[in-house]
Design brief:
alpha/beta; Peroxisomal Thiolase, Chain A, domain 1; 5-stranded mixed sheet; 14 strands; globular; binds coenzyme A
């Protein structure tokens, strides 16, 4: 009987380098408060956000992704031609098809790398890292570029008191490649679709456009969120998921050097660290204060800042955990590149 030749991959995978792009427009709280009848004090107290960055028209999803990827490739010592696959996690590339990953792969100069987008909202980057690790170990690819990128300002209603001060723009990229030792732990991931409605777009494009008989809203399908239940879910459920990721990697919180949770909200970050009983010495990412919530881009942006500030260094043991719309989540232990 004919048998199919099995595919053999690398023994292990690791993150070899990361790069980021932060948009040039800095938006302090003072610029968002008037439209939502709020104050700098309220926003800082409820979310920890002091400022965020919103992209200019030139800072497109593709442009920010390419800029972040070039830095990641250089730091990893990997050329664009070595990239076999580009995975882009985003919910804010407004052209649904073709995948923006294909344009990014081309602009970077890959050799026609496989390229596709994934939609897992704030958990997208961790989904991408998990997929990249498995694709490399399964033999489907040698080196993979995982990009988390958002222009959430396009989908944010500046008059919505529950979201206008939270969402922001940016890009982060990681080169994932083969490794002699494990650099990416098992993923713990899942979704709670029963809570599908808690964070979502207000309407779909058919509602925007409407019909000749019944004209649509003509408004962008902005993001809406029920803040209170999201907050409770994130704190109570995600601390358990984080512990499972540690258990599956065979490490404990005492072994961790850095904790890089999705930068959703400073109060969620603090409450999770407390619920997990993280030892005092574990450095915690707090990029949200300067960057806002950049959904799929938040974890690489936060880790990059920690590396730049000397709070994380190559070889450190880090825990990623990300969660958001869906409600989708993913967590894994990784070695800092
Ligand atoms: N500025 C000032 N006051 C505001 C406000 C704003 N932007 N939004 C709401 N308020 C007021 C309300 O009117 C209410 O006033 P009242 O007590 O006089 O009635 C009070 O603040 C509390 O409103 P509430 O909606 O219960 O706010 P909250 O305490 O839940 O805080 C969030 C709102 C969004 C900060 C909070 O729910 C949160 O952080 N949720 C998690 C969101 C998140 O991180 N999502 C990302 C997941 S990926």
């Amino acid at each position: 009987m004919t048998t199919i030749t099995p595919q053999v991959g690398a023994p292990h995978a690791a993150i070899l380098g990361i790069g980021t792009y932060r948009p040039s427009r800095v938006i302090p709280n003072s610029e968002v408060i008037d439209a939502i009848d709020s104050s700098d004090e309220w926003i800082q107290q409820r979310s920890g956000i002091r400022q965020r960055r919103w992209a200019t028209p030139e800072e497109t999803v593709q442009m920010m992704s390419v800029a972040a990827s070039r830095i990641a490739l250089e730091r990893a010592g990997v050329s664009a031609e070595q990239i076999d696959c580009v995975i882009v996690a985003t919910v804010s590339h407004l052209l649904q098809t073709p995948a923006v990953a294909t344009a990014i792969a081309h602009e970077l100069g890959t050799n026609q790398a496989a390229a596709f987008d994934i939609s897992a909202a704030c958990a997208g980057f961790c989904h991408g890292v998990a997929m990249a690790s498995d694709l490399i170990r399964g033999g489907s690819a040698g080196h993979i570029l995982v990009i988390g990128v958002e222009r959430l300002s396009d989908l944010t209603d500046v008059y919505d008191r529950g979201t206008a001060f939270i969402f922001a723009d940016g890009a982060g990229a990681a080169v994932v490649g083969p490794s002699e030792t494990p650099g990416i732990g098992p993923v713990v991931w899942g979704s709670d679709g029963e809570q599908f409605d808690l964070i979502r777009q207000r309407e779909d494009w058919r509602d925007v456009v409407g019909t000749p008989e019944q004209p649509g809203s003509g408004q962008m399908p902005h993001l809406i969120m029920e803040g209170n239940p999201v907050f409770r879910w994130a704190v109570f459920t995600m601390a358990k998921v984080a512990q499972q990721a540690l258990d599956r990697a065979g490490v404990s919180a005492d072994d961790l050097d850095v904790f890089v949770p999705h930068q959703a909200n400073m109060r969620i970050i603090d409450a999770m660290a407390k619920a997990m009983k993280l030892p005092e010495g574990v450095r915690i990412a707090r990029d949200i204060a300067e960057q806002g919530n950049t959904s799929a881009a938040s974890i690489p942006l936060a880790l990059d800042r920690m590396i730049a500030d000397g709070e994380a260094k190559s070889g450190d043991l880090a825990l990623f955990i990300a969660f958001g719309a869906g409600l989708a989540y993913a967590a894994q232990v990784v070695l800092v590149p």
